[in-house]
Amino acid sequence: MFHRFLSIAVIILAIFTASVWEVARIEPKLRTADGIIDIYSSLYDVSTGNIAAPVAVSWRLQILVRLMISSPLGGYLIRGLVEKNRVNELVELASAIQDDEGDYSGKEYGLDFPIVRLTKEDYDWHVDAAAIQTATTATMTGLVSDAEASSSSKSPYRSVRDYHAAYANKSTTPSAVLQKLLDFIKEKNPVLGCVQEVDYRGSFLAAYASTNRWRQGKPISIWDGVPVMLKPEENIKGLRTTQGEKFKTDGSDIATHDGVLADRFRKAGAVIVATTVMHERGVHPSGYNPFYNGPSNPYDLKRFSGGSSSGSAVAVATGMVPVAIGYDGGGSIRIPAAWSGTVGLAVGFSRFPFQNKNVNINPSVKSGPLAANVEDAAEAFLLLGQPFSRQGDGGGAVHPYTALYGGVGPPPPHLHPRWLNINGSEENKVEGGVNGVHRRQPIRIGVFQEWVSHRPTGTGGGNTILDDAVYKTFQKTIQALTTISATDTNTDDGGGESSTPYATLVNFTMPHMSLQALSHALIVTCSFSFSLLKENFRGLNNRETDDPSDTLQPATEFQLRIGHHITATELLSAMRIRSFAMAQWRNVLAEKVDVILTPTLPMTALVRPNGSDKIGFSDTSLGFQMMRYIWPGNLIGLPGIAVPVGVDSKGLPLSVQVLCLHWHEADCLAVGREIEKMFVDERAKPPPEFFVDLLE
């Protein structure tokens, strides 16, 4: 009787919500009037940018999830939801791509992972660039001069180099810094909600050891004594790798060893202080986790901080650490960086080894630093981006990324962008650069105008959310990059400003953007759902669990349940479109432009819905809109960096994103550094009550 009641209720709910979904969006058509699928069509095909999905908050969310999961008709309704979002067109496009024999069909790329293997010539270029990097020991060569870096470039935030200098001149010690940080966490974390678990014993011992090394004048590296935090998707020995879930009552989530990134931080002398709060399982980019009552945006506590690496972003934004590690499956580094006012570098796929107690590899997820400044992101990149050896770090098992790449592993990290010709002539030598490093000017910055402005043609649709301040600031950034002069130290008078601009604007287009974005959504949803099945997570497969720590939040459970109703054909179609997309984007980045510039998000930080703090909320369409400029970095593994560019009239952070070619994070960092310098006087920090300067 009860199930019959539920079924009737679900039917009523479905009829109501179906009508709401139908009027909420206008679908572009895949085929032309002649019934032809043009896989290389330049028509911008995104209409409203929405996808069909219910919106529910608080108790309404609980009822929705119960109905969808407990009712016999729940599976049919979820499947209907999947079909409502153009998956049939996804399959049609993938079939057309499979039949295409063109040079840019993407068949040279595998279906499993967005990995790009370099030619020997290209690989050797990276090796040479890294060798120059090592020889000069100037980690920011070509990006920041020594004088500029030593003053943190007028940034309101302390850099890793500032910590190093403070310890060197004995104005403070790592132990003193740690104590001040722990005091701030104790006082402010109940409000900010960004720190999940503090490693009191481990951090005290690490800070004490670092303080002794500095007293002896023997620091290990620039990281010695610098406090850092990591998202709880990375193993930290003795701490819980929760992935945003509740602490397990049986302690099964406590890591027994360090992951690769934590191990590299420790070996460099950094002080790992804590894990940070994240959105549960990383399933939504808003970032708030009701289990931990946070994080809240330090610029406005009523607003989202962005996620899912939300706690890491807030920890950096509030001055707790200059660097915190995040993971990014759908903008989870760049989105919180944008809304919390920090730098966020999501490296290319497989650049940093992804490893936690349950997962070694994920086809959409990559790691990276949330950082106070671009300089700090670069330092973290050089430290953490070293290839994982064939024998494994410390003689352990070979990491899957090394095996995927085919023997030698990924190329070594460095900070020389492609337009610095390491074997070039003496023309246009870079000021402050090293011997043999030369600049090709101007840099080509690519912009897909309809994409960034949300003004589609030929679809009859309207525009998605796009804040005026976001778009105007993006335009201001373009204007600045294309009007400033490039420094040329080889002019007739021995130096000065050349008349050559730093960058030129290059417009480009991209086919089937909406189905590319949908492909990312399907792949990442299936990946997350599968990871739970792999772990035999009782909360998803058995609602009647005796252990309350085995339960998921309603919104997480609903989102992951969708992945169970995506067919193998649809998933393989999404993967085929990903391979096609890799060919399209690489053609643009390898042949036409040096980097691509977009806003990071189309809107500034949003106010949390009423009632969402305790139970959460589900709004898949909002998440899809938030990822409007984000998804190429995850679908095809492109590196990307979010850079703060001031604040709007409400004092909320604004941000732009730079995307670059696989294995060329240096390109993102170089352009990101130029943008940071342009907006350094406009950059803000949170109110004084939510900011700490650990070196004062």
What does this molecule look like?
The protein contains 24 helices and 17 strands. It has 696 residues and is an alpha+beta fold. Helix 10 links the parallel strand 3 and strand 4. Helix 4 crosses helix 20, helix 13 packs antiparallel against helix 24 and helix 17 packs across helix 19. The N and C termini lie far apart (67 Å). About 10% of the residues have low confidence.
Brief description of this entry?
The chain is of the alpha+beta class. 40% of the residues lie in helices and 11% in strands.
Based on Cα principal axes, name the global outline: globular
Total beta-strand segments: 17
Portion of residues in helices?
A: 25-40%
- Termini gap: 67 Å
Q: Average the pLDDT over all residues and give the rounded result.
A: 84
Q: What gyration radius follows from the Cα positions, in whole Å?
A: 24 Å
- Are there runs of 5+ residues with pLDDT below 50, and where? 14-27, 140-147, 390-395, 424-438, 456-463, 488-496, 536-544
Described by strand count, sense and barrel closure, the largest sheet is:
11 strands, mixed
Q: Count the DSSP helices.
A: 24
State the strand order across the main sheet: 2-4-3-5-7-6-16-17-14-10-13
What structural class do helix, strand and pairing data support? alpha+beta
Beta content: 5-15%
